[in-house]
Amino acid sequence: MPFTIAIIGRPNVGKSTLFNRLVGKKLAIVDDQPGVTRDRRVGEGHLGDLDFAVIDTAGLEDTFDDSLESRMREQTEAAVKEADVALLVIDGREGVTPLDEHFARRLRKGKTPILLIANKSETRASEINAAEAYRLGLGDPIPISAEHGQGLSLLYDALRPIAEKAGAALTDDEFADAALEPLPDDAAEAPKHLQMAIIGRPNVGKSTLVNNLLGRERLLTGPEAGITRDSIAIDWSWKGTPIRLIDTAGLRRRSKVVDKVERLSSADTDRALTYAHVAVLVLDANDMLEKQDLTIARHIVEEGRALVIAANKWDAVENKTEAMKKLRDRIDYSLPQVKGVPVVTLSAMTGRNLDKLMDTVLKMYGLWNKRVPTARLNRWLEGTIQAHPPPLVAGKRIKIRYMTQIKTRPPTFALFAQKGEDLPDAYHRYLMNGIRETFDLEGVPLRLYLRKSENPFDKKD
């Protein structure tokens, strides 16, 4: 991107709505209640012939303690320092507030150029209120309506000279945030990067894990549960492998979710999982694999994503051998459909075993993309049927003809047989377990579809 824009302002003035308008997608969660945005989110913005990186930030807060609001303010200040221009957004319907005046004074002391945006300026009354903004000392207010797309030509005129002055100044591509890409049907159309989602219950250390992987405080963390609300996708690389790292909001049981913003966050997490390749399910080692963890794990498997379980805060576990045995037994009993799913013990706070986690992620990604040659698959099938023939159905044995792998991501197979629809579930599982063990696909979701084999001697109309 040729230059970077930060969107700032007090809570609930429409910053995320303007962000979504500029990137052309509903990436940021938008709601009427203030304080929805907490982490800063970066997207690729477009306005006319201008291309830029745009940063959505939390509302400016006047707090300087150890609170969540103070940490949100630090994130916003970091965004302003990174940007070539900051858009200070005020509410054109309410007019200038004392808080707007306070932040305008602070921003004028910085080196980053400031453009004053009077949002929600759809009516004549709001235009009059916007005129009050001259007293902020930031030049002419630009009246717009982010929700309705009005006034964007005025914003373009103000941004154009800044873009020309910025020239080829680029953001840090290694850590630039990104939109999520849909998955292709096969590895031949695979995106150039691995999309890795960090998923789990609230307050298990997901954002801390992401920050330690990146080597910087990119995301808000703290003792409060549910800090993360948006799914934040960050382009990154690990030992030369391009990775899109996706931090997600914590998932609680649906019966406990009553807040509208939390419902939107859960839906955003589900969307992130849909676009992921590998999902890292983060557990709290002091309270591992409770019912909600299992629900999340099953959802990951049902979506066909490669699963890696990360037992976080492992340094706090006293009897590690007993805890690992209990965890492994619970996984094997509750997730038989992904027998052999890998477990990595780590500490997101100290960085212990992060290398092992990423090596495991790359291994599972490779297995998720694995293709078994048809000839080898059918040699195995022939030996398997001889060792354990399919059962009789109505006095006749089911005739299995052949098998082929029809796609990867996850590995998916088709079995052609006469009366294949009558194949018992137990024999279906027998074949699935054989494929998993023989072709080293342990821990990866598999699909096995039954296809009817046509009898050439059947009479046809």
From TrEMBL:
Binding residues for GTP 1: 9-16, 56-60, 119-122
Annotated GTP 2 binding sites: 200-207, 247-251, 312-315
One Pfam family matching this protein: KH_dom-like
Keyword Nucleus among UniProt keywords: no
An example Gene Ontology molecular-function term: hydrolase activity
Domain EngA-type G: 3-167, 194-369
Alphabetic keyword roster: GTP-binding, Hydrolase, Membrane, Nucleotide-binding, Repeat, Ribosome biogenesis, Transmembrane
Gene3D superfamilies reported in the protein's UniProt record: 3.30.300.20, P-loop containing nucleotide triphosphate hydrolases
InterPro entries named in the record: G_ENGA (IPR031166), GTP-bd (IPR006073), GTPase_Der (IPR016484), KH_dom-like (IPR032859), KH_dom-like_a/b (IPR015946), P-loop_NTPase (IPR027417), Small_GTP-bd (IPR005225)
The UniProt record lists the keyword Calcium: no
Function: GTPase that plays an essential role in the late steps of ribosome biogenesis.
PANTHER family: GTPASE DER (PTHR43834:SF6)
Assembly and oligomerization: Associates with the 50S ribosomal subunit.
Family listed: Belongs to the TRAFAC class TrmE-Era-EngA-EngB-Septin-like GTPase superfamily. EngA (Der) GTPase family.
Protein name: GTPase Der
Organism: Dongia sedimenti
Gene designation per UniProt: der
